[in-house]
Amino acid sequence: MPPTSPWIPPLVLLAAVAASAATTAVVIRVVLRLGFVAMPRADRWHTRVTALHGGVGFAPVFLLIAAGILLAMGARLDLESLKAVRDSGLLEPAVVLVGAAAMFLLGLVDDFKRLRPATKLAGQIVAAAPLMVVVGPFSLTGWMAIDLLVTYAWIVGVTNAVNLLDNMDGISAGVCTVAFASIAATLAVHMPGAAPPAAWMAALMAAATFGFWLHNRPPARVFMGDSGSLFLGFMLATLTLPGALNDRWTISPDRPLSSLQQGLVAVSFAGIPILDTVLVTVTRLWRSQSPAVGGKDHSTHRLARLGLDGWQTLGTVLALAAASGLAGFFMVGSPSIIYPLFGLYLVALLLVGVWLSRVPVVVSEATGTVQSFLSRRRTPIIQLIKALLDAMIVSACYYGAYLLRFDFSLDDPTRLAVVRSLPLVLACCLLAHLAFRSYTRSWRSGSASEMVDHALPAVVGAAAGVAAVVVAFGLPPGFSRGAFVIFGVLWVLATVLSRFSFVLLDEISARLRARSGQAKAVVIYGAGRAGRLLATEAAFLDGPVRVVGFIDDDESKQGCRIHGIRVAAPEAWISRRRPPQVEIWVSSPLVPADRVEQFRRMLGDEVVVRRLDVRISESVGPATDAGSGAHPVEQATAHRA
């Protein structure tokens, strides 16, 4: 094991966790006495007075322990010159510590002085400069000027993405802890003999960040501030940037990764902060609002808006972060599957982002609006996004089919055949969907007939693509009939799954809402089709809502499950343990009013009863709901009986 890449003993990591937790506890006491606290505000999520400057509690812990490790290694190697330091591999991690310390100080100054955005950006560029000089830019294109811009954009972009993600209790610290742990595990498993410096630095970062997270988890006792978020973002950007710190993610000299593959691995480890930043930016442009305006419209806020409590929101985001870490782990370990795996990962991330974009949010008063291209061309852009998603799915399925057929090992003729034929297959599949007008259909609901409507063009496109390949190329060495069959199956399944992904996500969110303790409790009377619709769209109708029960007088429906909740008779549901405050929502006009009134009296005279009332009314003039960008379900309102 090289001396520049020590494995940190578990006791050192435990000491880092304990030191970070203890230091953060001291910081909380001090700042509360000094009055450095965050008061609840309309554009912020916390509802109680919370201590600030938590970054002071964990960033110095990492810097001091990491500096001590480097000094001990340098003393053991008896280095006498700068050239010896460079040859030993100690210079790169030392420069990272210098940049991280500079970023921490920049954030600390911003916490007290509120720097201008331009000043803050200039400070971030200066903090990253030593790293750029010593380590050099990421060689993506081979053109120094472009690679320099790409590297700076990555460091500054990820740093600020982590900063933006710090908007709810435990989110940013938790996501970064998972990301650092994933990086450390990836390098430890795939490079056990000679782990690069990023391995032990990521492990130490995970430990120090976790110690802070123990105080930042819901309900948070302290916020990290810019001193902590900029520090975390810089370290995440640095350790994921392909270079000497992580050996460019190459596990052996005979299996080097291309520059593009290295970049895809980096994106996977930092996927969640990037997703949140892209979601906020695009949705604000979508509603003609400046992206610089703050508000409660981040991915975490949207999950909470669905009715999830703080821990459920945190758990959901951490699960996504763990999935991103697993994607990076398998991509590094199996270079042959990087492209299809990243394609599927990206499609899944985009589907989650689009699904979250549908959630209604509290929009802050804009300090300035923009007449964006997105807001003027909504329908064509939605159809274009669907087509781009399909393009990525087709590419991943086609390449993946050949990998499955040949046991994840493609020789040069086969790889060349895949590359030559993929554009033809891709064109046929997309043209089939265009011919069947698939991109004009909504992905927000699912039924058996819609499944056929989505699957049919996929079957036609796969068959047409295979036929076109046979006609254009014949079947020379490299092509496989078995791979064609596997591709057809994968493409049809992926098409149906992607179209019904929103329905699946709605089902998952409904189940989580049912276990939430903060959303308004509702029992739905009427477990038919309208009841299912009402349960799915409850959060869109009346804010954070959790369905705690379904009741129906029809014995054939009793015992069935909707969103994991068993349908019961009114009397049977009453006998069960129920929330102290609950509303009755009647889903159908066919439910007799006397039965509803009888059920209400069983619960108590103060119980609110609402009935779903869907109306079609004439609208004259330009001021219509369709032009407002409102969610379609907002036209179906639940009125109090």
Helices and strands, with pairings:
Layout: H1 10-34, E1 37-38, E2 50-51, H2 55-77, H3 82-88, H4 91-113, H5 117-134, H6 144-165, H7 171-190, H8 197-216, H9 225-240, H10 259-269, H11 271-286, H12 299-305, H13 310-333, H14 338-357, H15 373-376, H16 378-405, H17 412-435, H18 448-473, H19 481-499, H20 501-514, E3 520-525, H21 529-536, H22 538-542, E4 545-551, E5 561-562, E6 565-568, H23 570-575, E7 583-586, H24 593-603, E8 609-614, E9 636-640
Parallel strand pairs: 3-4, 3-7, 4-6, 7-8
Antiparallel strand pairs: 1-2, 5-6, 8-9
Helix pairs in contact: 1-2, 1-8, 2-4, 2-8, 2-9, 4-5, 4-9, 5-6, 6-9, 6-11, 7-8, 7-9, 7-13, 8-9, 10-13, 10-14, 11-14, 13-14, 14-16, 16-17, 16-19, 17-18, 18-19
Characterise the protein shown here.
By secondary structure, the protein is mainly alpha-helical. Helices cover 62% and strands 6% of the residues. It is built from 24 helices and nine strands. It has helices at 10-34, 55-77, 82-88, 91-113, 117-134, 144-165, 171-190, 197-216, 225-240, 259-269, 271-286, 299-305, 310-333, 338-357, 373-376, 378-405, 412-435, 448-473, 481-499, 501-514, 529-536, 538-542, 570-575, 593-603; strands at 37-38, 50-51, 520-525, 545-551, 561-562, 565-568, 583-586, 609-614, 636-640. The strands form two sheets. A seven-stranded mixed β-sheet has the order 5-6-4-3-7-8-9. Helix 11 packs across helix 14 (338-357). The longest helix has 28 residues, at 378-405. The chain is globular.
